[in-house]
Amino acid sequence: MTKLRHVIGISGGKDSAALAIHLRDKYPKLELIYYFCDTGKELDETYQLIESLEGYLGKPITKLESEEAAQSGKNPFDFYYNSYKGYLPNNVARWCTRKMKLEPFEKFVGDSPAVSYVGIRGDEDREGYISTKSNIQSIFPFRKNIWSEEVITSVLSNSNRNEISDIYATLINGSDLDRVTSVVNKELRLFGRNQEPKRTDMMDKLDTLLYVDVVTFNHVVFKFLKTRNYPLSFEEDYPLLNDGQVLVRDDIFKILRDSGVGVPGYYEKLDYEVNGEIGQYARSRSGCYFCFFQQKIEWVWLYEQHPDLYQQAMEYENEKEGFTWNQHESLQDLLNPRRMKQIKADHLKRMNKEKSKGSKFLIDILDDTESEGCTACFI
Ligand code: SF4
C-alpha cells in the first residue's frame, strides 16, 4: 500500500515555524517530514531559528539545495546568478524561487503522494503555493478552510451538487441536513469562455457551509476526495478534519514564545528618528536578505542594521545593464542621505495615518507585507 508522506516546508519565517510546532504538539502521531530550501543568502537569524526548531521538534530539518548548484560548490544563489549572467530575479522573472525552492522541493517529494502543510494564517487572504504536481496536496491548518482552492472548486461545482448532498446525508439528518442541502444545491453563476464559477458565489457558499459546521464540511470533503485521485484518498482517517480552529497573527507569536523556540530577531521593531519624530521599523519577512519584494523601509533597515549585507546586495547590481533590485532605483541611489530620510518620513507618515484610522495593527503595518508577492518563499 502506498504510504502518504506529510511534509512541511520551513521558510525561516514565523508562520511556518509556528505551524511545525503546532502540528507536532497537536498531532504527535502525524509523521511529519521537515525541509528547508536554502538559498545561501538568508539572514543569520533564519539559520538560528532552524537550529532551535530542530531542537524543539527533535527531528532534523532536511536542507534542500538544487543538485547542479551543490555540484558546482557555489552557494545556490551565486550559482544561478552566474548562470543567468547577472540578470537579477524580479517579480516577472522569478528564477530564484523556481530554481532554489520549487524545483528542489518537487524533486524531494518525487512522484509518491504527499500532503504539504502551508502556514497561511486565518487572518490572511492569500492562497500560497499550490504544486502543479497532482501527487502533492496542500493543506492549510491555520485556516477555517483547510482545503486548497482547487479542491473547493471541485467540491462546490454545480456538477457535483448531488454527490455532495448525498455525502452530507450519510453524516447528518433532519433540519441540519435540510439547511445544508439548500446551500449545496444553490447554483453557482458561471462566466467566461471556460464557464468558470463566479468566485464570489463560490466563497459565499463555502463560508455558509463552514459557518454551519466546519467539522462536518471537512468530513464531506474527505469522503469526496476518496472517490478522486487526491493524495489524501490514501488515508483511512485524517485527524485535522476534527479541528476547525483558526489561528491568527497573535497566536503565531504566542506559539513561538511559549515553545521557547522564540521569534526571529528581525521581527523585533527598532526605533528610528526622522525630522525629530520617532518611527519604528523591522523586517517583515524571512528569505534572502536582498529579496526584491521588500519595501524601501526594509532596505533602510538592512543598511542600518546589517551594512555588510547591504554592501553585498549592492555588489550584485549592474546599473549599466539595468540589473537593480528595485525598479528605477539602485541601492547606491538609495544610499543618498536625503533619499533615506525621505523613505523614513514616508514610512512614518503612513504609520501615523494607520494609527489615526485606528488600525488594529498600528505600527505593525509592515508585518503582513510578507504575504505580498513572494508566496512560495514564505510558506
Ligand atoms: S526570498 Fe525573494 S529573492 Fe529569495 S528566493 Fe524568495 S523571491 Fe527570490
TrEMBL record:
Pfam families: PAPS_reduct. Residues 6-126 form the Phosphoadenosine phosphosulphate reductase domain. It comes from the Bacteria. Coiled coil: none annotated. InterPro entries: PAPS_reduct_dom, Rossmann-like_a/b/a_fold, Sulfate_adenylyltrnsfr_sub2. This is Phosphoadenosine phosphosulfate reductase family protein.
